[in-house]
């Protein structure tokens, strides 16, 4: 009887497996963290300066709509600031999109190796997640379209995708959009846009401008400001209005707004990040390919390395860990037991990882 008198969460909540973040070392330890796709070069010095500049203004509420940040984003990316909503990380915005556009009996479609937050937020909204097999390690547009039913309300697409690093070309994303009913929201999560070098990629802004059912979501987390928690989205005015109705009234804190605006304008730093990442992404991909390992071609700031089997992946994980290099296991959370996801880090870290893995797989 006492059981019946306990507060009960909504149906579906207890079926959710909590998000598993990348492992960290003990505070103050010398380990190198390559497990959460953070920036290989830290944060923009201008963003750090902006963050510090308000250390003595923490008693006053921030401006609630993140106007300063939206204006910087609008200026640099050529977007109307009125069509931007900022969030406490892009997870904040993804949650709000799910809450606003999904409910009991609805379905959201995503690809098999898509970002593991999508099932959580879909189920939290009372809806069902429909997983579509990848074509290799890349989202399969025909499969996604075939999975749409009258109950479908959202299609979640990370582009490039985490944890595979693969991407859909602009033409493929457009083909996906063209095949969707107009009442289905296509959420393009461009979390790794800053790192893409492929010429046939589009961040999604053109499609947002042309269509009434496309939203693009971005984050500052992968470009040096993960701790500040800043995300943003651009969408049709109607969707922006809906999200603004229910978001936290002060969902982005003042130091984050200022750091985000400074980072946005520091296009030189963003270019440095991109160049560093491309160089060491090429390096690790070339060095590890062959040697009984396969590196899935990546457009992001990490690579998915596939080993001969799950035991080799586990051994590689432990060996790197012992040498102070923490990478990300993708067995339980993503169903890729023979893989490890490795963030692109410093030159020293990348040379270290390559040396250790080459020696290890030779022995094995
Ligand atoms: C990291 C990541 C996010 C979340 O970013 P935050 O802004 O830190 O919440 C969203 N989508 C994808 C695909 C990611 O990899």
UniProtKB/TrEMBL annotation:
Residues 1-43 are annotated as: Disordered. The modification N6-(pyridoxal phosphate)lysine is found at residue 222. Its EC number is 2.6.1.9. Its cofactor is pyridoxal 5'-phosphate. SUPFAM superfamilies: PLP-dependent transferases. It comes from the Bacteria. Pathway: Amino-acid biosynthesis; L-histidine biosynthesis; L-histidine from 5-phospho-alpha-D-ribose 1-diphosphate: step 7/9. It is an enzyme of class 2 (transferase). InterPro entries: Aminotransferase_I/II_large, HisP_aminotrans, HistidinolP_aminotransfase, PyrdxlP-dep_Trfase, PyrdxlP-dep_Trfase_major, PyrdxlP-dep_Trfase_small. Keywords: Amino-acid biosynthesis, Aminotransferase, Histidine biosynthesis, Pyridoxal phosphate, Transferase. One of its GO terms (biological process) is L-histidine biosynthetic process. GO terms for molecular function: histidinol-phosphate transaminase activity; pyridoxal phosphate binding. Residues 30-349 form the Aminotransferase class I/classII large domain. Pfam families: Aminotran_1_2. It catalyses: L-histidinol phosphate + 2-oxoglutarate = 3-(imidazol-4-yl)-2-oxopropyl phosphate + L-glutamate. Homodimer. NCBIfam families: hisC. Belongs to the class-II pyridoxal-phosphate-dependent aminotransferase family. Histidinol-phosphate aminotransferase subfamily. This is Histidinol-phosphate aminotransferase. It comes from Devosia epidermidihirudinis.
